[in-house]
Design brief:
Distance between the termini: 12 Å
Mean pLDDT: 85
Low-confidence stretches: none
Strand order of the largest sheet: 1-2
Membrane topology: Multi-pass membrane protein
Organism: Streptomyces yunnanensis
Largest sheet: 2 strands, antiparallel
Order of helices and strands: EHHHHHHHHHHHHHHHHHHE
Subcellular location: Cell membrane
Keywords: Cell membrane, Membrane, Transmembrane, Transmembrane helix, Transport
Strand content: under 5%
Structural class: mainly alpha
Number of helices: 18
InterPro entries: AA/rel_permease1, APC_superfamily
Helix content: over 70%
Number of strands: 2
Shape: globular
Length: about 500
Amino acid sequence: MSVPAPVPHLRRSLRRFDIMAMGVAAVVSFDVIGQIAAGGGQAITWIAVLAVSFLLPYALLFAETGAAFPQEGGPYVWVDVAFGRLPAALTTMFYWVTNPVWLGGSLAFLAARAWNGFVFPLGSGTTADYVFKLVFIWAAILTAVVSLRRGKWITTAGAAAKVLALAFFTATAVAYGIRHGFRGLTEAHFTPTAAGFLALVPVLLFAYVGFEAPNAAGDEMLDAQHDVPVAIGVSGAIAAACYLLPVAAILSAAPPGQVTGVGGFMDAAELVFGIYGSWRGPLLTGAAVLFAVALLTQGSAWMIVADRMQAMAAADGGFFTRALGAFHPRLGTPVRMNLLSGVTATAFMVAAMHLAHGDASDVFGVVLAVAITTLLLSYLTVIPALLALRLWHGEVPRPYRVPFGTPGFTVAALVVYAWILLGSWVALFPGTLEAAVGIPYAFRAVWGVSRSTFETFTLGTVGLLLAVAGAGYVTQRMRAQPGDDQRQSGPAG
């Protein structure tokens, strides 16, 4: 077994708490809380169901693999060792590009909407709107450029701000309900339905994946083999609570049918903060600023890890030129890949601004669907790679093991893969499963755009990514010289 050569200039600075905080900063997504709450009372039911049937086996798989294979690059290395460089390069492309798409799409749009509504008027499609989104994107990129031993404190602060904001909002919603009654919950319908399930499954899977992301900085962890399993377990439990409680709080306060994906959290905050009287305005402004900062650090946390993955792919000869995989000798960060992410995020932001004419919620929904699609598609290769590593490289030391050994690992992998396969299909072709089982589905009413526009944007993005990833691999193969492959042999642990 061979793995990519170690990266020079890296310093080990990530402790167990840092790994956990990075996981929380990356995975707990403000932008999907409103989207989940828009599913109504049954959203709470499905959050709990997927926490047990998906998040738990998912966390077990990545806890074992992340501890056994702690190299820089994380999922890129796992797929490379299991299936080879080309599948690894294609997988990493989808995993990586999700984040500039997400940063320049839903995160920037959501932050701008909160800023426009509660801090300073920006308008829609104005110069101020563009400037805000550009500053937002490049501030997130800058935090990924700085050295990890400093940048980790930015993501840690973002994780803390996120958890505190959600806790404060939840407590306020409870106080609001005690004073005015929990009308939203009494009128909500918690009974699960097939239509509600198919609408929620992609966004819930998107909300729960990503705890393996800190493994992309595996060579910068002090004790990855012992810290990764604990960090994944703790951050997974925090994430489940950070989705379940705020969604329940939003539904308890907001009138049924009035929760939207783009405005859910801040709209509900505007309502429940009324209990603070004259302090309502300043508190909403502060909450909006905190909201935007938390979104920014969420984007930067993903940039830190995903750019390292793509840089490892480039350094290993899988993406255009090895120069893109260079890590800065002083900062220890893949600066060129960081800058490429910034350019990609900017381009996608401009494209999204022209997708729908004047309706921010439509833009938000479609752009989020693209991010969900690209990320879930990457796991269609990553999950089989985990199982292959378990079956073919059992000699690698595994400080943590999934209960019941290889049979337990296999069952967990099959369950997770089935969920990912379902979520990928629904995200890429919404409404098709509903039609197959006779459930009415008004596409334009749901998405605000025609199916042709939606599929052009989503399938076009997938096709473009495959073309770029394939071109990057072929280009590097054609330019390769004898001795270019620098890899090391031996156990990954």
